[in-house]
Amino acid sequence: MRRWGEDLAVQPYGTRVTAAIRPVLERWMRRKRKPLTFRLTQILTGHGCFGDYLCRTAQREPTTECHDCGAAVDSAQHTLEVCPRWAVLRQGLTSVVGGDLSLPSVITAMLGDDESWKAMVSFCETVMSQKEADERMREEAADVASIRGRRMGVRRRRYLMRLL
């Protein structure tokens, strides 16, 4: 466990989540009945429908801007802690996990009790499913820029080529 923690410390990617989990790594690994959901993982890692990720990594957005509030950078932390669109949901979350929504504090709260874990999962499921629906609507818009258009996988391209 110690060696794994040391290895995580020098990884160039995922520094936000590894910095938050490393201090509680043993508790994290020994958690029971606390599954990681797809959308919880998106918030923890920052890999999801966030302007920052979609622009820098996926190259699907022209800017890192938040579509909901116009902030310069739409990141997982912005969504979790700042974006006004999610203020009501955030109130429900902070009433359970506390007012500090920094990732280390949230993870510590989640490991502390099942109620905090469930509150965070609920927040992530609701927010990310809505962000994904909004992203699909932007992709399908008639005036969509080519960078935003929905990408086709290899199998779909082959299927469409056979139809022609």
TrEMBL record:
Lineage of the organism: Eukaryota, Metazoa, Ecdysozoa, Arthropoda, Hexapoda
Protein name, entry field: Reverse transcriptase
Entry superkingdom: Eukaryota
